[in-house]
Amino acid sequence: MNTKIDFSHLGDRVVYVKPVAVADLPQEVQAQAEGLDELFAVHNADGVQLALVADRRMAFLLARQHDMSPMTVH
Questions:
Q1: To 5 degrees, how large is the angle CA 56–CA 57–CA 58?
Q2: pTM (2 decimals)?
């Protein structure tokens, strides 16, 4: 499938949610992960990490609470 989708109507309010392996994070963050193997990062369009949360649902809720449009990154 190669369908182009125009997201320009969303402006700069788009954020991207992606899974992050806890093992790939700094030790201090791993210590706070409370046994989780995966966290979810929220990034702006420039790739700056805005948040790191425990699950995907929370990442989407957080984005929407801040009037952002979350998109999943694969």
A1: 90
A2: 0.81
